[in-house]
Here is the input.
Amino acid sequence: MQATDTEAIVLSAMDYGESDRIVTLFCRDCGKVRVIARHGKTSRKRFSGALEVFAHLQVRLVLKDGLSSLRGTDIITIFPRIRRDLGKIAHAGYACEVVDRLLPDAMANPRLYRLFLSYLDHLDSSPATSDDLRFFQINLLNILGYRPSLNACCSCGAPVDGDAFFSGVGELLCAACRTGGKAIGSETLALLGQALLTGRFGVITFPPSCLAEAGQLLDAAVTVHLNRPLHSLDFLNSILDVH
Ligand SMILES: [Zn+2]
Here is the structure.
């Protein structure tokens, strides 16, 4: 069978049986793929510790329906500065899990791949911040077609014009349609809109009240598309509480 060479980021990895490892990769050219690495658990030489979450690799795959085969890897980077910082690990781990859970199998998504890789690059070179996490989430939702409207009521479609309220399911409601949710400030919505236009991590900074509102909206907007909670969220929230 023909082998495919592509860049990839490891989304999840687990030992399998005596000596193998099953790895979920987000490949730049072929999307999310589950692969088995024969002797991936035992053969340090063959895979040289590359089969760990958020490692950035060049891989050789034989693609199959179901489980594909990993034939070779070269490490581009394991993001060593993320791995030395608990807060960065929590953010990168969240990013891997949310991409794994929201991305359909075997569909290339080069925009999302670029966003995800930019986030890991930025985490590796800068402190982990909630501003960047919210920037990642709004752009992730936007690329996947799951972004809430930032200027219209999700029920009646009327412009919210600075009078927007949480719907409870990651959308906005106008004053006439609100169902008891708190107000969300126009500054928060404007900053989220800017985050979609900027395209670069580290540029948008949210004041604390906006950060809390953005977090509430975006966490709900992500959760609505999941059939079970994210494992990484408790760890991430415990880190956010400390900082
Ligand atoms: Zn409405």
Summary: The domain at 81-242 is CATH 1.20.1440.120 (de novo design (two linked rop proteins)). The longest strand covers residues 4-16. Residues 153, 155-156, 158, 173-174, 176-177 surround zinc ion (CB under 6 Å).
